[in-house]
Amino acid sequence: MTIQRFDTGPRMSQVVVHGNTVYLAGVVASNAAGESVTKQTQDVLATIDSHLKKAGTDKSKLLSATIYITDMNTFAEMNAVWDGWVSAGNTPARATVEARLASPKYNVEIMVVAAR
């Protein structure tokens, strides 16, 4: 089976497609780093939309999501954005974890797997 990789660097690829499954690396708010959890979540989800489109799919085909946030006190703030974005009736299996991220300017990181 063919493997496609998009936005590949020396350490990782942002998107990997194997068969009809699309794997995204963890996405952080590159355009909203240092801003509120709301703005960072919006930025992350817009990037996810873009990556999924590149791979020939969309958020209605999400299978799973892992969300990392730096402070569980911002869980409701992140969820408010997520709930407005996720495809109704097509919600993925999901976990949310409190974690320290790669840089203090990031408060949200989301990793998803989707079908094509």
Describe the structure.
The chain is α+β, with helices and mostly antiparallel strands. It contains two helices and seven strands. The protein has helices spanning 37-54, 75-85, and strands at residues 3-8, 13-18, 21-24, 27-28, 62-69, 93-98, 108-115. Strands 1, 2, 3, 4, 5, 6 and 7 form a seven-stranded mixed β-sheet that branches. Helix 1 runs parallel beside helix 2. The longest helix has 18 residues, at 37-54.
User: What percentage of residues falls in helices of 4 or more residues?
Assistant: 25-40%
CATH architecture: 2-Layer Sandwich
Strand content: 25-35%
Amino-to-carboxy terminus distance: 15 Å
Largest sheet composition: 7 strands, mixed
Uncertain residue ranges: none
CATH fold label: 60s Ribosomal Protein L30, Chain: A
Principal-axis shape: globular
Return the domain count. 1
Overview features:
116 residues, alpha+beta, 25% helix
What's the short story on this structure?
This protein is α+β, with helices and mostly antiparallel strands. Helix content is 25%, strand content 34%.
Describe how the helices and strands are arranged.
Blueprint: E1 3-8, E2 13-18, E3 21-24, E4 27-28, H1 37-54, E5 62-69, H2 75-85, E6 93-98, E7 108-115
Parallel strand pairs: 5-6
Antiparallel strand pairs: 1-2, 2-3, 3-7, 4-7, 5-7
